[in-house]
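Project standup — Tuesday

K.O.: blocked on the structure for the chain from last sprint. Re-posting the sequence here as requested.
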Amino acid sequence: MTSIQELLGGYQKRKEDIKEANSIASEANVDKTEIKKSAEQLIASNRIVVFSKSYCPYCTQAKMALRSIPNLDFVAVEMDDGQHEGWQVCVSEIARDKAIPETSSNNTMSVPQIFVNGQCIGGADDLSDMFTDQRLSKMLGRPLS
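H.V.: unblocked you, prediction finished:
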């Protein structure tokens, strides 16, 4: 008879094997240098970029907040749309490098990752805070209403 610990150990081992296989497959199929270059170009050429996932409630909240600002254009990149495979790791690295001081210790592997004027301001909670205390208005150089 197999013990629970042996079953759990086997399950954990299979989980690690799958994760490693997925990582190897992803690295083989995705050129991170090209992804990073594309993401950086997108950030540089747009005032606001939201790196998002379609199922994430925090991403939805952030995009709704930005849509509530009159005459404000932003780009949303849905990293789970099948066209942005491997982007999350690259965006995380860029976010760490371009984080404003207030958010430099945030988890950059989470979504959304929001960039304003080329700087990563963090996620939905950070956007909400910056909206409330007018830092977002100052970064954009315009009123939010």
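K.O.: great, moving the ticket to review. The chain has a mean pLDDT of 85. DSSP finds six helices and four strands in the chain.
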